[in-house]
Amino acid sequence: MRSYHQYCALAKALDVVGDRWTMLIIRELLLRGPSRYTDLRDGLPGIATNLLAERLRELEEAGVVAREDAPPPVATTLYRLTPRGEQLRSALYELGRWGAPFMTEDAEGDTFRSHWLTFPAEALLTDHAPDQPAVTIEVRTDAAPVVLETSGGGVRFRPGAAERPDAVLTGPPRLVLGALVGMLDLEEARERGLQYEGDPAVLARVRPG
After folding, report:
1. Is it true that 9-87 and 92-206 share their CATH fold?
2. Per-domain residue ranges of the chain
3. Fewer CB within 10 Å: C terminus or N terminus of the chain?
4. Rounded to an integer, what distance in angstroms lies between the CA atom of residue 118 and that of residue 99?
5. How confident is the model at residue 106, as a pLDDT?
């Protein structure tokens, strides 16, 4: 692991997490929880297999990641964040909030996984009617579906489909995110190809203030 050799807290942090791919590995473990090596590789398209192994080894040595044996019938090695690694959650959310405006730019050629919506959406969205019954919005892109649920005044994402969603957003990631966070008016997004099923008030309830 390379070092800046500076007696500075930020430099010391970057010594551990500043290498290419490292923060994205941590992102995957934060969003997925304990993961197989193949799960991590799927969530990190473009990473070389040997580089992923090297980064995981370095994070283990730094006490950020630990490995454990999954019980049968899985019977494989799982990687998880340690409590020290979990402390990076707020830093990643703030980076996701800071980077969200860049997602309005042309993303042609970019790969996408649906669970990546978690950081910008959970950082920016809020529940404007927390005293009302919770609502769910199913998000369908080219990737696997995810569900947005209101919870405690905020929102949470989880993988999978909703049994009875209050609304369904279907379309390319850029339109879906634009409609969710208010970068696009719903009607404008529809004109560009977004499909929306349900009461528009459900979407308005979770958009940024």
Report:
1. no
2. 9-87, 92-206
3. C
4. 13
5. 63
pTM for the whole structure: 0.87
The two tokens of residue 174 are 């850029």
Phi/psi at 203 (5° precision): -65, -45
The DSSP bridge pattern shows strands 77-81 and 65-69 to be: antiparallel
Tens-binned pLDDT, residue by residue, of the chain (209 aa): 789 999 999 999 999 999 999 999 999 999 999 999 999 999 999 999 999 999 999 999 999 999 998 877 777 899 999 999 999 999 998 998 888 888 777 667 889 898 898 888 888 899 999 999 999 999 998 778 999 999 888 899 888 899 999 999 999 988 898 899 888 899 999 999 999 999 999 999 999 87
Q: Closest Cα to residue 42, out of 95, 116, 148, 147?
A: 116
In 3D space, the residue among 15, 153, 174, 155 whose CA is nearest the CA of residue 93 turns out to be 155
Single-letter residue type at 81: L
Amino acid, res. 74: V
Residue 146 contacts residue 140 (beta carbons within 8 Å): no
- Strand partners of residue 147: 138, 158
Q: What tokens were used for 86?
A: 């979990």
Distance, in Å, from the CA atom of 44 to the CA atom of 120, rounded to the nearest integer, reads 18
Pairing state of beta strands 136-140 and 146-151? antiparallel
- Angle at which helices 22-32 and 89-99 pack, to 10 degrees? 110
* Topology of the domain comprising 9-87: Arc Repressor Mutant, subunit A (1.10.10)
3-state secondary structure of 38: helix
